[in-house]
Design goal:
heterodimer; A: 307 residues; alpha+beta; Alpha-Beta Plaits; 2 domains; four-stranded mixed beta sheet; two-stranded parallel sheet; 9 helices; B: 171 residues; two-stranded antiparallel sheet; 7 helices
Chain lengths: 307, 171
């Protein structure tokens, strides 16, 4: 048996074993039921995404595209675009500009097919006191004044920090989540068993669980999707920001939806390996910090003060 | 006041016919220019010469009563007048302190004279905003896409709704 095959075999075995172990207690995992279709069983027995060969991958994608297209009454595409060579994505957010308008939150929901009800938001904007600085214990998530910015406050959006050393991927018992070459931490929703260990491990609250069947109106569904990104999720899996993998891995690369919508230009995105990028410029020239530096997660999401 | 109404009051219609031709032959100081979207003029206001070619330029500082009455300077207005920024003799251009004319598509050069730090950051994509592709062609939003040059403080916005509280979300 080749190493590759053996790995895949082990992964399979460990996932099944784990499934058996928790299924009794949790009851949240959806094993195909009595009336399950052939495609549901195919999905259940699908190999790990990284182990699929070209033909198998094509079959999986065809199956998913047909399924989603039927479900949402439109032509849905599921891309599997690979990381671009020589690219490591970085994101930076200017705290001296952000006004807390939440345009990013809803642009993200729309682009990434988050559940409307029950509500899932990959981006959270916190209102903080200018006098107290970045003190997360004083963060207010539910602020809602007539106008922002509110006097005496500043705003701090938080989403997945795309850690270089992600604590979330390490605890996944079935390797359903991992860091890609370009630095994006992804989840395979077909592989995720919903144990939520990753959510407990994430210090940023950036992972979200589909407690119910995602409520995604057909008309609002974004049909341009990526397997590891914004394709529709089933109930019982974890999801998170992927720097809009379905947009940013295009050639030429589009900006993430949150960066594009930002009316104040507080959000900056680019390639950390490109010395000409604005992200490199600001890391070298501005006051920059990362969230919870002491945990050594090494986020590739930076906060900075332009002034 | 609507431009059409202004015209019908001020001029016979026939005067309008030749108005939209704009000839501005200006010499620009050599400096790097940036790809920008169309300047955010109100509809129909540009070219300014459609009206101003009929008027004698009036450099006098005064309260405007005939037109542009909605423009109230709130931008270091104590020491400033329209013609510090607008070219008195060719209204279709702006002017730098040096007296050099600048196209409206390069208004960042005007702002950059007094806000050098912001201009520097803007050029490298840190202040303001670039659109397009992160690894491809980009356009720069002009300063005036975000700041009204006459009253430049960034306007506050109504926030979109807060998230539902977790106790409400998880039945």
């Amino acid at each position: 048996m080749s190493d590759n095959k053996k790995n895949s075999y082990d992964q399979h075995r460990s996932r099944r074993k784990f499934l058996k172990g928790v299924a009794a207690g949790a009851g949240l995992i959806a094993l195909p039921g009595k009336d399950a279709s052939a495609s549901m069983w195919e999905e259940f027995f699908q190999k790990h995404f990284k182990e699929l060969n070209k033909d198998e991958l094509k079959a999986v994608i065809n199956r998913l595209e047909a399924k989603y297209s039927g479900e949402f009454d439109k032509k849905v595409t599921v891309k599997t675009t690979l990381p671009i060579e020589g690219v490591r994505y970085g994101y930076a957010l200017d705290l001296s500009r952000c006004i807390g308008c939440r345009r990013c939150v809803y642009a993200c929901v729309k682009e990434n097919n988050q559940s409307r009800d029950p509500q899932i938001h990959w981006i959270r904007v916190m209102q903080l006191d200018k006098e107290k600085g970045v003190d997360l214990s004083r963060a207010e998530h539910y602020y809602n004044p007539e106008q922002v910015p509110a006097k005496g406050h500043f705003y701090m959006p938080v989403q997945c920090q795309q850690c270089e050393k992600p604590p979330c991927t390490k605890v996944c018992p079935v390797q359903a989540t991992w860091k890609e070459k370009d630095g994006i931490v992804v989840v395979d929703y077909n592989w995720c068993i919903g144990c939520r260990y990753c959510m407990a491990a994430c210090p940023y609250g950036a992972r979200h669980f589909n407690w119910g069947k995602p409520g995604l109106p057909k008309a609002e569904m974004n049909p341009v999707t990526h397997y590891l990104g914004n394709r529709p999720r089933p109930r019982g899996v974890v999801e998170k920001c992927t720097f809009c993998v379905q947009r940013t891995r295009e050639q030429p690369g589009r900006y993430p939806a949150c960066e594009e919508i930002c009316p104040v230009g507080a959000r900056k995105f680019g390639n950390l390996l490109d010395p000409e990028s604005e992200i490199r410029y600001l890391i070298e020239h501005k006051r920059v910090f990362i969230l919870k530096e002491e945990l050594n997660t090494q986020p590739k999401f930076f906060y900075f003060y332009a002034t | 006041m609507k431009i059409s109404r202004f015209f019908s009051r001020k001029f016979p219609l026939s005067a309008l016919v030749s108005v939209l031709i704009l000839a501005s032959v200006t010499v620009y100081a050599a400096e790097k220019t940036f790809e920008v979207p169309r300047p955010p003029f109100s509809e129909g206001i540009f070219p300014c010469s459609q009206c101003h070619k009929y008027f004698k330029p009036n450099p006098k500082r005064r309260v405007l009563t005939e037109y542009h009455t909605e423009i109230v300077l709130h931008h270091a207005e104590g020491e400033r007048w329209c013609t510090d920024c607008h070219n008195l003799l060719n209204r279709d251009t702006l002017r730098l302190v040096s007296g050099d004319p600048v196209d409206f598509s390069e208004s960042y050069r005007l702002c950059g004279q007094c806000h050098g730090d912001k201009y520097r950051d803007w050029k490298v994509g840190v202040h303001g905003k670039r659109t397009g592709y992160w690894n491809g062609e980009k356009q720069y939003l002009l300063c005036v896409h975000c700041h009204n040059p006459h009253d430049p403080k960034f306007k506050s916005l109504k926030p979109l709704p807060p998230p539902v509280r977790p106790d409400a979300a998880r039945h």
